[in-house]
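Minutes, project huddle
Topic: does the predicted pose make sense with NPW bound?
PN asked that the exact inputs be recorded in the minutes so nobody has to dig through chat later. Recorded below.
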Amino acid sequence: MGVRCVAIRACGGGKIDPGVPRMAVHACGAAAAVVALLSAAIALQWSPLYAVLQRALSLHTAHATKDMENLFQLVRNIVPALTSKKHKGQDGRIGIVGGCQEYTGAPYFAGISALKVGADLTHVFCAREAAPVIKSYSPELIVHPVLDSSNAVEEVEKWLPRLHALVVGPGLGRDDLLLNNVRGILESTKARDIPVVIDADGLWLVAQQPALIHSYHKAILTPNHVEFSRLWEAVLSSPMDSNDLKGSTLKLSQALGNITVVQKGEQDLISNGQQVLVCNQEGSSRRCGGQGDLLSGSLGVMVHWALRAGPEKTNGSSPLLVAAWGACTLTRECNRQAFQKYGRSTTTTDMITEVGTAFSRLFTT
Ligand SMILES: NC(=O)C1=CN([C@@H]2O[C@H](COP(=O)(O)OP(=O)(O)OC[C@H]3O[C@@H](n4cnc5c(N)ncnc54)[C@H](OP(=O)(O)O)[C@@H]3O)[C@@H](O)[C@H]2O)[C@@H](O)CC1
Ligand SMILES: Nc1ncnc2c1ncn2[C@@H]1O[C@H](COP(=O)(O)OP(=O)(O)OP(=O)(O)O)[C@@H](O)[C@H]1O
Ligand SMILES: [Mg+2]
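Predicted holo structure (tokens), as shared on screen:
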């Protein structure tokens, strides 16, 4: 279908189900205001112009509405059916590469989010010291304390053939030994054509060595504002234009060989160098650490689902774009729901508790 560039904002009034596209309320509001002002100004004698303007604005709104309906539908199309015919593992075996002495929360958040979204198994590959801590948070994660060992790449390679997607970076840290091992793991992942989501310190590594991921069409980068600027400077060697974030996202993707880039922020901007999708799903003003980890873990599963579903289910749109838009929408909805309950005290753990209901509201038909 080729969704081009859509701006989506679901309103938070509570009357409209977030799962049923409460679309283009933003555009609707702006359009209504413009129409009201112009109609007052030009009064009755210019009524033909007014009519043309009104028609143009409602057409624009209708397109935004249609685009958003389409995106929700495309995400629904990729979600695998729950049936009694499947065995454990079929809906996703996801690897998380991250977790060091300082950061144990981030790989946990990413791994547990992947499971809560619907993956069957999650493997965390982390530094030795981080492993007992991560295991103690949750019995659901399979934890391999291998990332700082001398044969880290071989240890991870043993598991790679069984993994459907890899999420690289949450809580990885910037120790040279770990980063060097992750470089080898990424090479191996590419050689096996496994989709990879790169976040946090994984993006630090990519900024040091963009060739590592250049043109790998199963890669998705999920930078926050700071990480995006760092990548931009590394790849384009110039200051970025912060007045044109959409254009910058498109350009960074192109400069990296058209890999998918998700620039997180007040609105999430998603590009594969050809299209830019905008995710404006209502979230909240609460910015506790770990929300990006929830996003990267969710995306790990959704990218596997989208690629497995095939192009007919995504109606010609890039499966990676559809997966990224779905994961951003889900993360923001978790944030909205958790904030409604806990307000200022909302933490990422509260958001993870909301994954099930948020997913059903958005994507279950
Ligand atoms: N519980 C855990 O274990 C968690 C662990 N985590 C892990 O931590 C590691 C480092 O990740 P990171 O994101 O803190 O790294 P980095 O890019 O050095 O940012 C540092 C500084 O940049 C700024 N800043 C950030 N965002 C900004 C924005 N949008 N807009 C503007 N400024 C912004 C801000 O600077 P400040 O405002 O303090 O000057 C911030 O302090 C990584 O492994 C990650 O996975 C996290 O996942 C969280 C949960
Ligand atoms: N200003 C904002 N308004 C609304 N949502 C936001 C805003 N900034 C970020 N988000 C949402 O929060 C989620 C995480 O983005 P964020 O920029 O906080 O990532 P991060 O810094 O990598 O997080 P982490 O603390 O996990 O490292 C994304 O889904 C994004 O849409
Ligand atoms: Mg982050």
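Observations noted during the meeting:
- The chain has 13 helices and nine strands.
- The first strand starts at residue 93 and ends at 97.
No decisions taken; revisit at the next huddle.
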